[in-house]
Amino acid sequence: MSDATLKPGVVTGEGYNTLVNAAKSGGYALPAVNVTGTNTINAVMEAAANANSDIIIQLSNSGAQFYAGRGIEDGFKAKVMGAVAAAQHAHLLAGYYGICVVMHTDHANKALIPWIEAMLDEGEQYYEKHGKPLYSSHMLDLSADPIDFNLGECARILERMAKLDMSLEIELGVTGGEEDGIGSGFDEGADNSKLYTQPEDVLQAYDLLNPIGHFSVAASFGNVHGVYKPGNVKLRPEILKNSQSLVQKTHGTGDNPLHLVFHGGSGSEKAKITEAVGYGVFKMNIDTDTQFAFSQPVGQFVNENPKAFQYQVDPQDGTPYKKFYDPRKYLRLGEEGIIARLQVFPGVVEFLVRRTVFRVHLVQKGFGVLVDESTHGL
């Protein structure tokens, strides 16, 4: 097997393909963590550096808007420039953390197609200047629309992205729950049959998109955004297996030809995660868990030091509280919460480390979802 060496930094094009294929062949999924500002993006990069792992950093449309700042009156422009700023931040600093970062934007529905196109406008300018794309990939989630419209728009956008060495993530079927205003309602007592993707739809997507460029599929197999009571979310990873088998049989490909994504992974069962990874899932989204991991230590610190958030100086004994209400103090605690949470991603399984300069067949302990450790050795 030939060497596949990647330099630390934002990974795009063939480098991105290398990471995807390494994850699938190695039997693990890379964590894809949503961020909203420099505190969260830095925490995610630090977590990856501590684990000597690759990482996927992603922004939703509202996360990008928050990154730019709520003070920008033009909300659409803020969503575009916030995404640009976050990507530039990662391009500037990822190398100093010594890690490989995939930059990605999360769910964009029909109303947000202009957001994708505006980011591609920025990306084309960046590509012309730097010879590489600003983002590794974008997601276009048209799962709520008829499949012909969904795939037609995905093909149109992918044609543009392929010229920039970018990958497109699509969604087939409906991932329940809501993420930053994008998604569908989830009735915990309902049948929710739409939460399961049909293999024939996946084959249709492969037939249309594979000749155009690199793409991945967020196929729905009962996964739901957010955290729900145990037993109410019924994952069926065999949906993924059936989709892979149909494409493989139809096109005569090797095993697991599809690059699959696991949305709504927070709180999922270990066995179901492991099974899904075995069927070609290389990316597992995490947002709800890291939001709580950031907020919990901040809230605890405030509760333990209530006076510091009411007075600059204690009115009774004159004690100054600056070292407590300095935002760097409690924001760092939030960062450390994310860092600690990601060391046990997704909390119930073993992990792999992918070194940022590596041979594809070398595997060590660290991030990612391990399927069968016995088949991988140093």
Spatial gap, N to C terminus:
14 Å
Count of individual beta strands: 13
**Amount of beta strand:** 5-15%
- Given as residue ranges, the uncertain stretches (5+ residues, pLDDT < 50) are 184-192, 225-231, 346-366, 368-378
Radius of gyration: 21 Å
Which architecture would the CATH scheme give at its second level? Alpha-Beta Barrel
Structural descriptors:
378 residues, alpha/beta, TIM Barrel, nine-stranded parallel sheet, two-stranded antiparallel sheet, 12 helices
Question: Can you give me a brief rundown of this structure?
Answer:
By secondary structure, the protein is an alpha/beta fold.
Describe the structure.
The protein is of the alpha/beta class and about 375 residues long. The protein has a single domain, classed as Alpha-Beta Barrel (TIM Barrel), CATH 3.20.20.70. The protein is built from 12 helices and 13 strands. The strands form 3 sheets. Strands 1, 2, 3, 4, 5, 6, 9, 10 and 11 form a 9-stranded parallel beta sheet that branches. The protein has a two-stranded antiparallel sheet with strand order 7-8. Strands 12-13 form a two-stranded antiparallel sheet. Strand 5, helix 6 and strand 6 form a beta-alpha-beta unit. Helix 4 crosses helix 5, helix 6 runs parallel beside helix 7 and helix 10 packs across helix 12. The protein starts with 8 loop residues before the first strand and ends in a 13-residue tail after the last strand.
List the helices and strands and how they pair.
Elements: E1 9-10, H1 13-26, E2 30-34, H2 38-51, E3 55-59, H3 61-68, H4 75-97, E4 100-105, H5 113-130, E5 137-140, H6 147-162, E6 167-172, E7 177-179, E8 182-184, H7 199-209, E9 215-219, H8 238-251, E10 260-262, H9 270-278, E11 281-286, H10 288-304, H11 322-325, H12 327-342, E12 352-353, E13 364-365
Parallel strand pairs: 1-4, 2-3, 2-11, 3-4, 4-5, 5-6, 6-9, 10-11
Antiparallel strand pairs: 7-8, 12-13
Helix pairs in contact: 2-4, 2-12, 3-4, 4-5, 6-7, 7-8, 10-12
